[in-house]
Q: What sequence folds into this?
C-alpha cells in the first residue's frame, strides 16, 4: 500500500532542498570564504612586522614565504624585495597569478601604500587563501628601514598608527554636553540590551 | 532574517502574546496526538504504544533539519538562538525523577495540563503533585543548590562535545530516528500481537525514509553558511573600486563638512574603541570592520542614503571596514583617503599660507580653505555661515540586539 500524501510531502521536501541548494550555487558570486569569515580573518591576522621581515629575508626562512609585490611592473623592475614576485594589484585575481600563489607558503604582500596591500589581502582571503599577511607601510618605508639597513626603531612600524596627538590640535565640538551631565553626547552609551526571561 | 524578537523586528513586549499563541498550538497538537491519555503516554514504557517517541523524534529532526537549512540559506542567525545551559548533576537527577513520575503518573508536566484542560481528574491531581514538588524544592533550595548548580558545562552543543560537525550529527540523528521508528514498530506489533496480514496492509514508508536520508545527506557537503550570496558584490567590482579612485573621498571634503556643520556625510570611525574614545571626528560613529556585519548597523548602511565615509589613522583599518561593507552589498560608502594622519598633516604641518596670495586660483582657494579650517579646529573661531545656534551633528544610532533568555 502506498501512502500518497506522505510520499508527495517527502518528495516536495526533498525537491525544495535540492532546488534551493542548486539556486544558491548558481547565484554564488564565486567567493570561497563568507564575508563573516573574511572579517574574522582580518581581525585575527596581524601585520608582518619589519622585525619578522628582516629575519625572513636574512635568515634561512625565505623558503617559507612567498613575497608578492603588488606595484606596477616598471616600479618592480626598478627595485623590489629580494625573492619577491610581481603581481600588479589589478591582475591579482587572474588565473595564471592564482596558480603562482598556490605554493602552500605564507603569502606576504606589499604595495605602494599599506592600505592597498590590505585590500589585496582581503581579496585573497575571500578566494579561500588563509595564510596571507601584509608588510606594513609603503615600499618606500620598506626600502628605507629594511633594504638600506634594518632600523630597529621602526621594527613595528605601520602607517595606520597615529602620528599626531589629535586632541591637542582640535578643540571644536559639534555638540556641547549639557551642564552637569556625565554623558558625552557625541558618543552616547550603547543602549543596554534587554534580556527577555522565559522558559517552561 | 530570524529570529525576530532579539533583532527587534517584533516588539519584545509581545513575547508573552506569541508564547500564548504558540502554547495554544502546542496544546492542540498534543491533544490531537492523543497525549491527554495517560495510558497512551505510559505506553512507551510498556512497549504497546511508542507514539511519544515517534512524535517527539519527528518534531526534533524536523526542527533540526529546518534550522540547519535556514541557517545555510542565511534566513536564520543560529548564533542568536538560545541554548539551554547544561548542569550535569541536575539533568541526571531531574531526568530520573521525571522518569519515575512519568511512569507512575502517566503524564509529564506539559501533557498533564493537556489532560487537565479536557477534564481528566488524574491529570489535575498530577498538577497538584507537581506544584507540591515545586514548593518543596523552593523551600529547601539551599539544600538542593549544590546538586542543582553542580557541574555546569555552559551552553554547549552535543556535536561539539562529541567532536563531530553539525552536519554529521544531524545525519546520524536522522538515521537513528528512522531506525528507532522501525524498531519500535516491530516491538509494538509483537506486544500487541498484530498479525502478519495486518502488517502487510500498512502503507510503505520506504520512499519518504530514503528521501529524508538523501536530503540530510546533502547537508554533509554544505558549509554551515553560504560562502557567497546573490546580494554580494563580486570580487572583480570590489577590486576595481578599491584599486581605482571611486572608493575614496578627500580629507578636504571631510574638513569642509565638519567646518560648515553639514550633514551630507556620515563619518565612521573604524579604529579601536580606545582610539575612538580618546579622539574622534565630530559626529563620527564607531563601526569597526568586525562590527560592519552586525545587524544593529543595517539601518545605517541600507536605509540612510547619505555618503558613509570610513576613516582610520592611515587608511588600512578603514579599507578593511570598507571591503567588508561593500562586499555585503552596501552602497554609497567610501574611504577617507590618507586618514587622520593625512588630514592633520595637511592642516597643521604642511602649512602653505604663502599660497594665499598665489596667482593660481586653485592654489589660492585651497590655501585659504586650509587656513580657515586650521583656525576653526584650533580655536573654533570662524563662525559657520549660519550665525545662529550651531546645528548639532548627531551620530546615527545603532539598533540594539536583544538577547533572549529562556527555552524549553
A:
Amino acid at each position: 500500500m502506498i501512502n500518497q500524501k506522505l510520499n508527495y510531502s517527502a518528495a516536495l521536501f526533498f525537491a525544495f532542498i535540492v532546488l534551493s541548494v542548486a539556486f544558491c550555487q548558481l547565484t554564488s558570486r564565486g567567493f570561497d570564504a563568507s564575508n563573516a569569515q573574511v572579517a574574522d580573518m582580518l581581525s585575527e591576522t596581524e601585520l608582518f612586522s619589519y622585525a619578522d621581515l628582516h629575519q625572513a629575508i636574512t635568515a634561512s626562512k625565505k623558503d617559507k614565504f612567498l613575497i608578492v609585490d603588488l606595484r606596477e611592473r616598471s616600479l618592480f623592475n626598478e627595485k623590489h624585495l629580494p625573492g619577491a614576485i610581481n603581481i600588479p594589484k589589478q591582475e591579482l585575481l587572474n588565473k595564471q597569478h592564482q596558480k603562482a600563489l598556490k605554493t602552500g607558503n605564507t603569502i606576504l604582500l606589499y604595495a605602494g601604500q599599506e592600505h592597498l596591500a590590505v585590500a589585496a589581502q582581503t581579496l585573497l582571503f575571500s578566494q579561500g587563501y588563509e595564510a596571507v599577511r601584509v608588510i606594513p607601510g609603503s615600499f618606500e618605508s620598506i626600502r628605507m628601514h629594511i633594504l638600506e639597513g634594518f632600523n630597529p626603531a621602526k621594527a613595528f612600524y605601520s602607517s595606520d598608527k597615529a602620528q599626531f596627538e589629535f586632541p591637542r590640535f582640535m578643540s571644536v565640538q559639534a555638540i556641547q554636553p549639557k551642564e552637569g551631565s556625565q554623558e558625552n553626547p557625541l558618543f552616547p552609551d550603547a543602549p543596554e540590551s534587554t534580556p527577555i526571561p522565559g522558559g517552561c | 532574517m530570524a529570529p525576530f524578537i532579539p533583532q527587534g523586528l517584533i516588539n519584545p513586549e509581545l513575547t508573552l502574546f506569541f508564547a500564548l499563541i504558540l502554547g495554544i498550538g502546542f496544546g492542540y497538537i498534543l491533544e490531537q496526538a492523543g497525549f491527554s491519555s495517560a495510558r497512551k503516554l505510559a505506553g512507551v514504557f510498556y512497549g504497546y504504544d511508542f507514539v511519544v517517541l515517534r512524535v517527539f523524534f519527528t518534531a526534533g529532526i524536523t526542527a533540526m533539519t529546518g534550522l540547519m537549512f535556514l541557517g545555510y540559506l542565511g534566513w536564520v542567525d543560529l548564533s542568536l538562538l538560545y541554548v539551554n545551559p547544561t548542569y550535569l548533576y541536575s539533568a541526571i537527577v531531574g531526568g530520573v525523577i521525571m522518569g519515575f513520575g512519568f511512569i507512575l503518573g502517566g503524564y509529564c508536566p506539559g501533557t498533564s495540563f493537556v489532560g487537565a484542560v479536557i477534564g481528566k481528574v488524574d491529570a489535575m491531581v498530577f498538577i497538584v503533585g507537581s506544584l507540591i514538588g515545586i514548593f518543596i524544592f523552593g523551600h529547601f533550595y539551599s539544600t538542593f543548590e549544590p546538586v542543582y548548580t553542580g557541574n555546569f558545562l555552559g551552553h554547549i552543543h552535543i556535536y561539539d562535545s562529541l567532536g563531530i560537525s553539525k552536519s554529521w550529527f544531524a545525519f546520524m540523528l536522522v538515521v537513528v530516528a528512522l531506525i528507532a521508528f522501525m524498531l519500535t514498530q516491530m516491538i509494538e506489533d509483537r506486544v500487541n500481537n498484530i498479525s502478519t496480514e495486518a502488517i502487510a496492509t500498512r502503507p510503505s514508508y520506504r520512499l519518504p525514509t530514503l528521501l529524508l536520508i538523501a536530503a540530510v545527506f546533502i547537508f554533509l557537503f554544505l558549509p554551515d553558511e553560504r560562502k557567497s550570496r546573490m546580494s554580494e558584490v563580486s570580487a572583480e567590482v570590489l577590486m576595481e573600486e578599491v584599486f581605482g579612485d571611486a572608493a575614496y573621498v578627500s580629507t578636504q571634503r571631510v574638513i569642509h563638512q565638519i567646518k560648515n556643520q553639514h550633514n551630507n556625510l556620515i563619518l565612521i570611525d573604524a579604529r579601536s574603541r580606545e582610539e575612538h574614545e580618546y579622539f574622534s571626528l565630530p559626529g563620527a560613529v564607531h563601526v569597526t570592520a568586525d562590527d560592519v556585519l552586525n545587524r544593529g548597523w543595517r539601518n545605517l548602511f541600507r536605509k540612510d542614503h547619505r555618503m558613509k565615509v570610513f576613516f582610520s589613522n592611515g587608511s588600512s583599518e578603514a579599507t578593511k571596514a570598507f571591503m567588508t561593507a561593500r562586499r555585503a552589498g552596501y552602497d554609497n560608502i567610501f574611504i577617507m583617503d590618507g586618514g587622520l594622519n593625512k588630514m592633520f598633516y595637511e592642516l597643521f604641518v604642511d602649512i602653505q599660507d604663502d599660497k594665499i596670495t598665489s596667482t593660481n586660483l586653485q592654489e589660492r582657494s585651497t590655501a585659504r580653505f586650509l587656513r580657515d579650517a586650521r583656525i576653526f579646529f584650533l580655536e573654533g573661531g570662524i563662525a559657520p555661515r549660519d550665525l545662529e545656534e550651531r546645528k548639532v551633528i548627531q551620530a546615527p544610532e545603532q539598533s540594539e540586539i536583544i538577547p533572549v533568555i529562556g527555552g524549553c
In short: Strands of chain A lie at 65-69, 85-86, 106-110, 132-134. The longest helix of chain A spans residues 4-26. The helical segments of chain A are 4-26, 35-44, 50-58, 73-78, 95-101, 114-126, 139-147, 166-169.
